[in-house]
Design goal:
TerC/Alx family metal homeostasis membrane protein, transmembrane, Integral_membrane_TerC_rswitch, Integral_membrane_TerC, mainly alpha, globular
Length: 331
């Protein structure tokens, strides 16, 4: 099947938006600290939902698109987990009460969806009109992969947020205390802003940075805007519950960033090969496609992405186990 039926696209988006709104209303109505069991059930629900979506694509006779979605979803999911590291830093930096962290995360997810939707439309337009953009996307992903490996990205992100906070405090009167999840409160008869505003802005800036990284990655797997958006949507849904489920375990996934870096580098190389096949630049092979360049299949991409996540996770768990036993032995 060359195209995805319109009824499937519309129906899927309607169902997903309803679920996302229901999740948001549930938080607003009953802000609380979710238990490990509750978080695990929600994460399991959203993962199952993504798998059902892929199965639905397969059942309507669209195996290739189902594989593209799974590859894109796993890529975006791994990048989203990496995003959680920065969220943890932001929550700790601003001492956000744990009771209201759910609302902060949900607002961050909505901001991320809006930003990524805009980047998806922009990326689709660029790809449609400028095939050479794949060279730029590929180079950017390889650069991002190298940066992920050699730089302390999460700490650098926290420093950037501190700069934003200093600028905001210089021009806007912001109170030092929270008033629930409110953005404004009354102090000595005057309306002032709460630190929650800074938290939302910090989360938004973080989402913007990660959108710039993740959208080229997903376009390296599929150029269908609907699948790109669906992969991002499924990756972000359940991210809030995953935050509470993993908790302190995030710090133990020490090698996850290397797995993510390998995925980004792999997709970057794949984009380079694809760019050669659709080459129109006159100074490269006379503007003709470079047919000898290998074509990486979607099945191979899915296998590499899945293996990278599994290997980096298992390696992290083994390293933590060895370190724990060593510490126990020294005592």
């Amino acid at each position: 099947m060359d195209t995805i039926p319109v009824w499937f696209e519309i129906g899927s988006l309607v169902v997903l938006v309803v679920i996302l709104l229901a999740d948001l209303l549930l938080i607003l109505k009953r802000p609380h600290i979710p238990s490990t069991k509750e978080s695990a059930l929600w994460v399991g629900f959203y993962v199952t939902l993504a798998l059902i979506f892929a199965l639905s694509l397969f059942l309507i006779g669209d195996t290739e698109h189902a594989v593209q979605f799974l590859s894109g979803w796993l890529t975006e999911y791994s990048l989203s987990i990496d995003n959680l590291f920065v969220f943890v830093l932001i929550m700790g930096q601003f001492a956000v009460p744990r009771r209201y962290q759910q609302e902060v995360l949900m607002v961050g997810i909505i901001i991320a969806l809006v930003l990524r939707a805009a980047f998806i439309l922009l990326g689709a337009a660029l790809i449609e009109n400028f095939s050479w953009i794949f060279f730029i996307f590929g180079a950017f992903l390889v650069y991002t992969a190298a940066k992920q490996v050699f730089e302390k990205e999460h700490e650098d992100g926290a420093q950037k947020e501190s700069f934003i906070v200093r600028v905001l405090r210089r021009f806007i009167p912001i109170h030092d205390q929270y008033d629930g999840a409110k953005l404004r409160t009354v102090v000595n008869g005057k309306k002032v802003l709460t630190p929650m505003l800074i938290v939302f802005i910090s989360i938004g800036v973080t989402d913007l940075v990660f959108a710039i990284d993740s959208i080229p990655a997903i376009f390296g797997i599929t150029q269908i805007p609907f699948l790109v958006f669906a992969a991002n949507l499924f990756a972000l849904m359940g991210l809030r519950q995953l935050y509470f489920l993993l908790g302190d375990l995030l710090d133990r996934l020490r090698y996850l960033k290397y797995g993510v870096a390998f995925i980004l580098a792999f997709i970057g190389v794949k984009l380079f090969f694809h760019a050669m096949h659709v080459n129109e630049l006159p100074f490269i092979n006379g503007g003709e496609p470079i047919l000898w360049a290998p074509e990486i299949s979607n099945w191979l991409s899915l296998g590499v992405i899945f293996a990278s996540i599994v290997v980096s996770t298992i390696a992290s768990l083994i390293a933590n186990s060895v370190e724990t036993k060593r510490s126990a032995g020294e005592k």
